[in-house]
Design goal:
This protein is 16% helix and 43% strand. By secondary structure, the chain is α+β, with helices and mostly antiparallel strands. The chain folds into two domains: 40 residues, no CATH class; 158 residues, Protein Transport Mog1p, Chain A (3-Layer(aba) Sandwich).
Length: 214
């Protein structure tokens, strides 16, 4: 699979979204996903009153896999990713310049990455950021599912996105997390067919996310 799809830091995407509009004291705009937002002259933005994002809550408690034998620790803030090193290897060929870590699963042809930064974001901002992030390469990208989960005692937003890249149906799944120290996107992606076929590998990859003591 051609994997030259780029993700940007959350802060960059938010700045591009805001700066792309001629802002007055309060100006209405629409995201690529069709959500109405209000752009304020102090550089902030909020969802329109008629379409504030809401999330279902999955009461299942998700935990890391017993096969996860090594933890990659973020150098940006207090986050770690437990990984099964029999399945995953560090991808030496950098795909995304903004990623702190990149991994590849040869047996399933899946790609994963961690993008972390020292800026806090509310969970409500992640859907708009995820769409803006991927739309440059995948114009028809859309969120098909999202919910709040508790993973290793940490609240995260789970999202599944689908679109078409070079006529190939592709799928992304990710955990989006933020605390007062920073934010992270833990993303896994490949063709829709391979993501569905190796759904267990996908789940085990994502459920390796852990918030570390500050």
């Amino acid at each position: 699979m051609n994997n030259s799809i780029h993700f940007c830091p959350l802060f960059c995407i938010l700045i591009m979204l805001l700066c792309g509009q001629a802002m007055s004291a309060q100006e209405k705009a629409f995201t690529a996903y069709g959500d109405q937002v209000w752009l304020h002259d102090d550089g902030t933005w909020t969802y329109g009153d008629d379409n504030r994002d809401s999330f279902d809550i999955n009461e299942t408690l998700f935990v890391k896999s017993d096969e996860a034998d090594f933890m990659y620790e973020s150098q940006v803030f207090n986050l770690g990713i437990w990984m099964d090193t029999l399945l995953w290897e560090v991808n030496d060929d950098t795909i995304n310049e903004f990623a702190e870590y990149e991994w590849y699963c040869p047996s399933a042809d899946l790609y994963g990455m961690l993008i972390s930064e020292d800026v806090e974001f509310p969970l409500e901002s992640f859907p708009i950021i995820a769409i803006e992030n991927a739309q440059g390469a995948i114009p028809d990208i859309r969120i098909i599912f999202k919910e709040i989960r508790t993973v290793n005692d940490t609240k995260v937003l789970y999202m599944r996105l689908r679109g078409t890249y070079e006529q190939i149906p592709v799928q992304y799944e990710g955990y989006y997390f933020s605390n007062p120290i920073g934010s992270a996107q833990l993303i896994i992606y490949s063709s829709e067919q391979l993501m569905d076929k190796h759904s267990d590998v996908v789940k085990r990859f994502l459920n390796g996310i852990v918030e570390l003591p500050r």
